[in-house]
Design goal:
Number of helices: 5
Structural class: alpha+beta
Oligomer: single chain
Distance between the termini: 99 Å
Helix content: 10-25%
Order of helices and strands: HHHEEHEEEEHEEEE
Number of strands: 10
Strand content: 25-35%
Largest sheet: 5 strands, antiparallel
Radius of gyration: 45 Å
Shape: flat
Length: 362
């Protein structure tokens, strides 16, 4: 607070005799009892600038405090559960197929070709002429991850190899010689361990060893299906008529536009060009049926029914080939319509587990 006494040049009327200082009393009302109006304006401006500074610096200071906070303080964050990585599975499968193909064709002097997949192949001894054994229809039948970045790939191949050469015998006929020289073809399985890494966004692969020939995968039991037993398709059955008309249009391009056989909202594109000239529906397996009874009626609108249809389709070579289709039908306006071309037959629902309640003891 400013003092109400302020020094100013003394006039003749203000001089006090005997005093070495010239003092004057400032009695202006704006200086009495507090700040001047100019000081108040300056203080208000200063407060406004301080408020703005706090608003701007507040988030910055808070962020700096978080960065500078010790790592051991605060509530620990639980790590998210790890998810097994499937990166590289598709590439490893393709790499293994190429390796097995080169391995089957390899012969003496082909070490460098195999080293492109398995670097240590340069020190492996190879025998026989290249191309004496070849693989066809190579495909992956099993793929599993044994450890991070390591995949075990099982490749099936139809291997064709020349028959063993026998010493010439004058007693053999020409037919026997041709039979002995005929190539042998057999389905075989090879397991390849493949390591994969990602460097700079690009995946790389390498085999950890030469292929190992293994047994065929086990054949599993077929699950129970939803349908009843196969029975001959009766011509007078409305379901036989519906599937025959639809499959004729679908496979042969005949029997009119395919949309006329579809339920509203169903979209199915016929095969083009048509691969067959005619079909014959032989058997039906109907959902819920237990006997071979035929029917000539159509239930109420909206009723849905699933079928497994067995047929023979005639190709341009006049040869009939068996086909099977899983279909879902729906009833509308006294006729069956195709509601869906199912991707696979429908399995039967699993039986409900029943637990016998213990009788109360008395």
């Amino acid at each position: 607070m400013k003092s109400p006494i302020r020094r100013r040049p003394a006039g003749p009327e203000d001089t006090v005799p005997g005093d070495g200082q010239d003092w004057a009393v400032d009695s202006r009302p704006e200086d009495v009892g507090g700040w001047s109006s100019g000081a108040q304006a300056n203080t208000s401006a200063l407060l406004r600038w301080c408020a703005w500074a706090l608003l701007i610096l507040g988030p910055l200071l808070a962020g700096a405090a978080l960065v500078a906070a010790p790592s051991g303080t605060g509530t620990p964050v639980a790590p998210s559960p790890s998810v097994p990585s499937t990166a590289g599975s598709q590439g490893s499968a393709g790499f293994a197929v190429l390796f097995v193909d080169a391995y089957l064709r390899a012969g003496e002097g082909d070490q460098e070709q195999l080293a492109a997949y398995y670097p240590d192949a340069t020190g492996i001894r190879l025998e026989g002429a290249p191309g004496q054994r070849t693989g066809q229809q190579l495909t992956v039948v099993r793929l599993r991850q044994t450890s991070p970045g390591i995949w075990s790939v099982t490749v099936a191949a139809r291997v064709r190899e020349s028959g063993p050469s026998a010493a010439p015998t004058p007693k053999r006929t020409s037919a026997e010689k041709q039979q002995e020289a005929a190539p042998v073809e057999r389905l075989r399985y090879f397991q390849v361990p493949v390591a994969t890494t990602v460097t700079g966004g690009t995946s790389g692969y390498v085999a950890l060893s030469m292929p190992a020939e293994v047994a065929a995968p086990p054949r599993v039991a077929s699950p129970e299906l939803l349908y009843g037993p196969q029975r001959p398709a009766a011509p007078g059955d409305p379901r036989t008529q519906a599937v025959t008309e639809f499959l004729t249009a679908y496979l042969t391009g005949r029997a009119g536009d395919i949309d006329r056989y579809l339920a509203p909202g169903t979209r199915i594109t016929p095969i083009s060009p048509a691969p067959y000239t005619g079909i014959a529906v032989d058997h039906l397996a109907v959902e819920g049926e237990r006997g071979g009874e035929a029917t000539t009626t159509v239930p109420a609108d909206g009723t849905r029914l699933r079928l497994l249809v067995s047929l023979r389709a005639t190709g341009s070579d006049t040869v009939r080939r068996p086909l099977a289709y899983a279909l879902t039908l729906t009833a509308r306006a006294g006729r069956w319509e195709i509601a869906e071309l199912d991707g696979a037959p429908t399995p039967a629902p699993a039986p409900l587990a029943t637990t016998a309640s213990a009788a109360p003891t008395t």
